[in-house]
Every structure is written in structure tokens, then in C-alpha cells.
Design a protein that fits this description.
Pfam families: Acyltransferase (PF01553). With about 240 residues, the chain is of the alpha/beta class. It has eight helices and ten strands. It has a single domain, classed as 3-Layer(aba) Sandwich (Glycerol-3-phosphate (1)-acyltransferase).
Length: about 240
């Protein structure tokens, strides 16, 4: 599957997003992820998805349901296989330390959205420990500022890993799912794969437009409130749809 995707990039710039999505579906299946869906992704081209971030599993989980590019910090590109797969998925890399490139990087994302491409942002700026949703960084919402972005569709998305082997996830198991701190990737991944089937929930909340909010901070607060509230509900055992096979 991966070599085929690489070949299509030679034949067609950007490759075929459906092949990347198919790869993510296969990866989720091989990792024992059972995905339940609430709502549906917006079907209009050029959607800016805003999601909480817990684990590297979020990439294949969301990628299996949405044909979209991710926004990630530039360091991810150097994370071995993870970085290679991120680049393969047309990730937009952000150099957070180089403020001189902020406008250029924002314009690259705006252009992708304006051309009908979907983009996924993790506005916490890093992955959480899975206990709760961390505060969002308002600077990451600069993409939807300005008249050219007023009609962009923004859809909040909640991800939650709620069960392992059919039993509710305990706080003690969360570090085996969430990748936090200085944990090495390979040992963490081996531990995670030994857990057994993991029940994963995705909630696609109602989409909004940037023009509906006074500024990016108001939009950020709306997205955080919606996502954090949904996450708490899911981790307490509320509303679990049937898994997607």
C-alpha cells in the first residue's frame, strides 16, 4: 500500500487521498482499534477540522475517516517511521520557533483550504495525558482570521479511547495509550499493542464558520468547550455508538 502511494505521487502531485485513507483503515484494523462514530464529517470541500490530541493513534484514527492533511510541528518530520508516514499523508509542518515564517505557514494552510483541501489541527499544540483536554492555543487559529477565511467551515472533533478488552479504560492504563513526556516511541508502541482491542470514539460536532465569531479567541473557546465537554461525557461512559468495522 505504501509503495503504491509513493508511486501515485510521482504520477500525480499530492497522490490519491483515498489510498492514504485506505492505509489508515488497514493500520487501525491491524492495531486492534474499534472505532465508533458520532455524527459525520462535513462534506463541503475545504473543512478545517479541530480535534483534541492524545496519542499517535489519533493520526490513523482520524485519517481512516477523513481525507485530510494534518498540521504538525516541524519536529515530527524527523520522528523516523512516524515522520515518514506524516509526510506521506501530506502533513503541513509548522516551525513554531521561527516567527518570521508564521505568515508564510498560515498562507500555505489557507491556500490548501481555499483550494478545497481538508486540514486537521490539534490546537492543544501537543498531546495530552488522556485525563482531560488541555487548553487550546489561540495562535493556531490564525488560519481562520481575515476576510479570505470568513466562510471557511470549521468542525470540532472529539477523540476518546474509552475501553480496552471491552472494559472501561482506567487512569492507570491511560499512559499506555497517550504518548506523553519523553517516552520512547518503540517501547511505548509495543506496550500499546499488547493491551488488546481498544475502543475508540470519534465525535463530529456541528460545523461552524469563522464569520460567526467575533475573533479567533471566541472561536477557540467555542471549540474547546464543545470538545472538552464531549470528552468528559465519553470517558464517563456516555453515548457509545456501534463500532465501524
Amino acid at each position: 500500500m505504501v509503495p503504491l502511494e509513493l508511486l501515485t505521487r510521482k504520477l500525480r502531485p499530492g497522490g490519491w487521498p483515498q489510498l492514504t485513507q485506505m492505509f489508515h483503515k488497514m493500520l487501525c484494523r491491524s492495531l486492534g482499534l474499534r472505532i465508533g462514530i458520532h455524527g459525520a464529517p462535513a462534506r463541503q470541500g475545504g473543512v478545517f477540522y479541530v480535534a483534541n490530541h492524545i496519542s499517535y493513534l489519533d493520526i490513523p484514527v482520524l485519517g481512516s475517516q477523513i481525507r485530510a492533511a494534518f498540521v504538525a510541528k516541524s519536529e515530527v518530520a524527523g520522528w523516523g517511521v512516524v515522520g515518514w508516514l506524516a509526510t506521506l499523508a501530506r502533513t503541513v509542518y509548522i516551525e513554531r520557533e521561527r516567527r518570521s515564517r508564521t505568515a508564510e505557514q498560515r498562507n500555505a494552510i489557507v491556500e490548501r483550504l481555499a483550494n478545497g483541501g481538508d486540514v486537521i489541527l490539534f490546537p492543544e499544540g501537543t498531546n495530552s495525558d488522556g485525563v482531560s483536554v488541555m487548553p487550546f492555543k489561540s495562535a493556531l487559529f490564525a488560519v481562520v482570521e481575515g476576510p479570505e477565511a470568513a466562510d471557511f467551515l470549521i468542525q470540532p472533533v472529539t477523540i476518546a479511547y474509552t475501553r480496552v478488552n471491552g472494559m472501561p479504560v482506567t487512569r492507570g492504563q491511560l499512559p499506555d495509550i497517550a504518548w506523553v513526556g519523553d517516552s520512547e516511541l518503540a517501547p511505548h508502541a509495543l506496550t500499546l499493542m499488547g493491551l488488546g482491542p481498544i475502543r475508540t470514539e470519534i465525535v463530529f460536532h456541528p460545523a461552524v464558520r469563522a464569520a460567526d465569531f467575533a475573533d479567533r479567541k471566541a472561536l477557540m473557546r467555542h471549540c474547546h468547550t464543545v470538545i472538552a465537554s464531549s470528552y468528559r461525557q465519553l470517558m464517563r461512559g456516555g453515548n457509545t455508538p456501534r463500532p465501524v468495522r
